[in-house]
Amino acid sequence: FRLEPPRPVRVGLRTQNEWFFRQSVVAFEQSGGSLQLVEESPDIVVAEGRPNGLSESTLIFAPSDEEASAWELIDETIIDASVPVVKLAEHPILRYIDAEYLRFPGARKIRAPESAVVLIESEAGVPLLYTVSRNGVGTVVVNLNPAQNDFFLSPRFPILVHASAEFLSGQRQLVESSY
Fold first, then answer.
1. 3, 176 in Cβ contact below 8 A?
2. Calpha distance 178→35 (Å, rounded)
3. Exposed, middle or buried: residue 22 (CB in 10 Å: 0-12, 13-18, 19+)?
4. Cα separation, 173 vs 171, whole angstroms
5. How far apart are CA 31 and CA 159, in angstroms?
6. What's CA 164's distance to the chain center, in Å?
């Protein structure tokens, strides 16, 4: 008896720095097929800022739009997020990441919606990584600018993209030997 592998999470990109995001998705597409880069009908969208008209589940980097519903911008000033406080280390998004070593370059002072689940915050209580769902659409917000301090080159970057995609799609990939 053999189970078929799970369907890959279809990922669309709406980013300014598309090359780095593309490589993160393609790496998991080529090494097991858990993610699939698509132009149309994505399960989730990886975005920077908040592109208008998103209805798919979304992973967003670099909050910068005070009209966005996933956060409220309080201050444009970049905050000190050098010592993140991990609130939910067992959350599926943080499962394969040493969260205490994550850095959040370019983080801004934002307020998460009341219904948000904050996974990591700054020492001052500013949310740095959280999830929120509105009208059945899930969002993961990462309060950083991925182009700063070479975060794109960090080994944590593609893992964060992958874990968020799995979480938002509702698919949790099993280790191959277990199915």
1. no
2. 19
3. middle
4. 6
5. 13
6. 5
What type of residue sits at position 67?
E
- Residue 69: how many other CB atoms lie within 10 Å: 14
Read off the tokens for 102: 């994550």
Q: In the numeric block, which tokens belong to residue 120?
A: 């990591």
Round to whole Å and give the CA distance between 178 and 28.
19
Per-residue tens of pLDDT for the chain, all 179 residues: 677 777 899 998 888 778 888 998 998 888 878 899 999 998 888 887 765 555 556 677 655 554 456 777 777 788 888 889 999 999 999 998 998 888 898 888 888 989 999 999 999 999 999 998 877 788 899 988 887 777 778 888 889 999 999 898 887 654 444 44
Cα–Cα dist 65/72, whole Å? 8
Which residue in 145, 59, 66, 61 sits closest to 106, CA to CA? 145
Do residues 56 and 42 touch, judged by C-beta distance below 8 A? yes
